[in-house]
Predict the structure.
Amino acid sequence: MALDAVKLEIDKSADETVAAIMSKADAEVSEITSSADAEVSAIDERWKKKLKDMIEHLRRQELSSAELESKRIVLAKKKEILSKLFVETLRSLESASKETKLAQYRKMINASKSMVKGSRVRVSPEEKITAGDLGVSSLIKDSKILGGIILENEDGSIRIDMQYATILQAIWNREVKKLSDILFG
């Protein structure tokens, strides 16, 4: 019987040791789990913040890209409108009546006569005017001219280009910003 008591004592001691070890292990597992949960939570918060920042950055990038594309489209349309305006204005000048053109050509010649002595004029072959109509010594039909005139001295060494396209382009280059502001605000 004494052996049974020793066996019971050993079993009891073993059970207490196992219980103590299990309790200690459970405490360590709980501590490790708690620490791991805190670390996972901190990592999760960092990634959520990083993801939020990345999403905000991408949103700003896309918004900026969309704004730039919008501005590019608007500028292209404005340029198209201004180009059409230039072409229509030039077409209007070139298709004016003979009387209107004659009056304009005379003004051009009178404004330039002091710079060019003994003048002759180059005009489009389509023009139905004479040297006498313009008050110049001679008139040359030039297929390179679509509208307006080129005033030159008798030997052709001095030329004043008063073609509609040349005058309009000079005005256009100088005033396009003002015109754009007037048209588009």
Summary: DSSP finds four helices and four strands in the chain.
